[in-house]
Structure formats: C-alpha cells, structure tokens
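[job 0412] stage=fold_complex status=start
inputs:
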Amino acid sequence: DADVTQTPRNRITKTGKRIMLECSQTKGHDRMYWYRQDPGLGLRLIYYSFDVKDINKGEISDGYSVSRQAQAKFSLSLESAIPNQTALYFCATSDFSGGLYNEQFFGPGTRLTVL
Amino acid sequence: SQKIEQNSEALNIQEGKTATLTCNYTNYSPAYLQWYRQDPGRGPVFLLLIRENEKEKRKERLKVTFDTTLKQSLFHITASQPADSATYLCAGTYGNKLVFGAGTILRVKS
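[job 0412] stage=fold_complex status=done
writing structure:
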C-alpha cells in the first residue's frame, strides 16, 4: 500500500463549487504539506502543518483552506473554485527526526480542472 | 523571496553519457539543496541532498555539487540510461520549507 494517498485522483468541477481534496499517510510523520504544480512554475506551497494543532499559510494560500483532522489526515478545500485553480495538487509529508533536513514524501497527486 | 531556477529547456543526451543538470538560487543560500525525480502522472521522489557546507555528494550513479560562490548546484547522472528519462526538480531548504524549481526534463536516447 502507498504511504501517502490522495483522493480523488482526478476531479472536474464548475466555477463556484466547493471542493475538498483529501490526503492520508501511514508513515507516522508529523509534518504535512499541500502544494500545487503548474507547468513552468514548479511546486508552490499552499499550506503546511507541523502537528494537529499547527496550521501555517504557504506562498499561495488565498482561495484555499485546510483541516488537519488527525496526525494522518490533512485535507485541502477550495471554498469557491475558480478556473485559475486548475492544476495538479500534491500532498507531502516529512519527519522532523532528521532535524532540518526535511526530505519530503509525496502522494500521487490530484488533477483538478475547474470549468 | 527565495527563488530556485532550473533550465526550462529539455536536456537530450545519448545513452551512456553523463547528464548534467543545473540549479541556481537567488539571494540567500539554502541550508540544504535537494534533488527529486518526477515521472509523468506521479509525485516527486527524493533522490539526494547536499548540505550548504558540503562540496559534493555521491550515491551510486548520482553526484551533486553545491557551490555557494556561484549560487549553484549541479546534478550529474553518469552512464545514463533511457530509464533515467524524467523531470528532475531541485529544491532548497529555507527554514522548515522547501522552495522548488520548475524542473528540467531529461531525455536519454538509446
């Protein structure tokens, strides 16, 4: 079984709809991240969480919200989707035990299309 | 803000040759530079990291260098194979966050 899973893998939605992307991990890591990837722009950090009670905004948090329901679960919501949120979304985890070295483990991604 | 820049043009090389990919950063040096491999339709996979005070790191056919004077990291794959074809991402560790470059596509032809 995959260590980091994301659901759904693909989603097509309409402008103005609320949508939630879910991430689960079995690695036992405390740290979880949400990124979006756009062609030519690389991965950009949306939100990150270092434990259940800790949520932090990343580089591009406007239009997004997150919930850390448990150590293993971190969900990303688009309250009112817009076409420029069409992108590939990745969840990632990392373990602090290595200090600041911060190797991240990624899920398979969710391809979101907003029409 | 910190930026990580990678060559946007694809690198095409012949099987057996050494592939060299470049990663440049602006402003402050990251504490670590990491390299990831990404295949189409998949999430990035960690390959190697190098600390700011290290000059070179090796792992099997992979070698990475870190030059703080040039503000650059080079990633080498020796004896390249068609299976090495993928997008390679460079990422700098700044505090508790990774800042990613856009990636370079590598194509190895047999």
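[job 0412] summary: DSSP finds no helices and eleven strands in chain A.
[job 0412] exit 0
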